[in-house]
Amino acid sequence: MNSFIYDVGTKIYFGKNATDNISTELKKYGKKVLLCYGGGSIKKMGLYDKVISEIKKAGCEVFELSGIEPNPRVDSVREGAKICKEQNIDVLLAVGGGSTLDCTKWIAAAAKVDHDAWDFFSDWADVNEALPVLTVLTLSATGSEMNCGGVISNPETKDKIGRLAKPLLPKASFLDPTLTYSVSAYQTACGCADIISHILEVYFAPNKDMYMLDRFMEGLLKTVIKFAPIAIEKPDDYEARANLMWASSWAINTFVTGGKTHEWSCHPLEHELSAIYDITHGLGLAILTPRFLEYCLSENNVDKYVDFGVNVFDIDKNLPKMEIAKLSIEKLSDFLFNTLGLDDTLTKIGIDETNFEIMAQKACEYDCINGFVKLSPKDVEKIFEMCLE
Ligand code: NZQ
Ligand code: ZN
Q1: Pocket residues for ligand 1 (CB within 6 Å)?
Q2: Alpha helical stretches, state H, 150-265
Q3: pTM for the whole thing?
Q4: Share of the chain above pLDDT 90, in %
Q5: Do 28 and 42 fall into the same domain?
Q6: Neighbours of 141 (CB within 10 A)
Q7: Looking at the domain assignment, is residue 356 inside a domain?
């Protein structure tokens, strides 16, 4: 394995009433706050009032950007950056799911530059600084609360692009599992599929693994598999919501990637789906992941599937390796489509092969994905086709 630096500088307040600490953190970063949120779920939950009272307690002036969309658009980033510049905003407070958090992070960066926000994605413009960002998470899925990534869509160019940049890392995140009680069964399922995918993108990587991190990832996977159905059945089960919330953060806060150089495979494919069809990220991943695993399986990499099947799904280790590998994919599909109840084909969600060729080329950036198995655009097209039935 490679050497690495592990340095996640996000302070986490975890547990019931974690939001009581917002004012303490806000005070550190200035007087003018831009509160960013989505389509209104935070008002229905009563969280908006709580956040406003914390902002007042901190003695701060509040400005607002509401209506941030799922699969957040670059227009929202532009709008937020304009407010920051006009009002001399000191600090941003994102309240919501991954879309709100991602959008807020890129507003924080766009507020510091003169060029258009989309240049960060089309031209890979430098991200040298950003306004400080604090987050209140209301949906366990993306891990955006504890990482420096953010994914932004541009409906004009039909692009959805994710990028990491150290200055975007939240300074503090408030993680109260009770704030996820109101998440629908569908969004809970999609969030869990996303967490699982984040882990599998790293677990199934081409280079040599660190034993400890592989066992850690298996533990995270077992956690999601155990608690997702409980949260769906009983949305206010604190233990289930708490386990899912903390698992979502640790699946993608760079801890599990320690020592690995690798490229993700299913995420670039999914980003093409949601760029064109505006589907929920986790749903796209749920449909893609079992097909990706099936497509990549070979005698050369079967041992990894055996670990997955035996350690995560308790499949009998004495069975032939190929049988264990295939069973592990079946078990994963059963969990995603029967236990979580997600649609199992692209056809069912109204997507056909019309755009597969261009989507495959864009997912590969016109060359190939150097992930678990090297995938050319033709390979990616085949994986998309497997998702039709
Ligand atoms: O807009 P509101 O009204 O808040 O409603 C949202 C939205 O409709 C709702 N919701 C959120 N919390 C709720 C709630 N409804 C009831 N009660 C609550 N407590 O859920 C819907 C979906 O929200 P969204 O933020 O879009 O979901 P998610 O957290 O899954 O975020 C998805 C976005 O994150 C990106 C995805 O590509 C997608 O754009 N990702 C970000 C990553 C990162 N920053 O590291 C990595 C991921 O792989 C992912 O790509
Ligand atoms: Zn994801």
Answers
A1: 38-41, 45, 70-71, 96-100, 102, 138-139, 141-144, 147, 149-151, 162, 179-180, 182-183, 187, 191, 194, 252, 267, 281-282
A2: 185-203, 211-233, 238-251
A3: 0.97
A4: 94
A5: yes
A6: 30
A7: yes
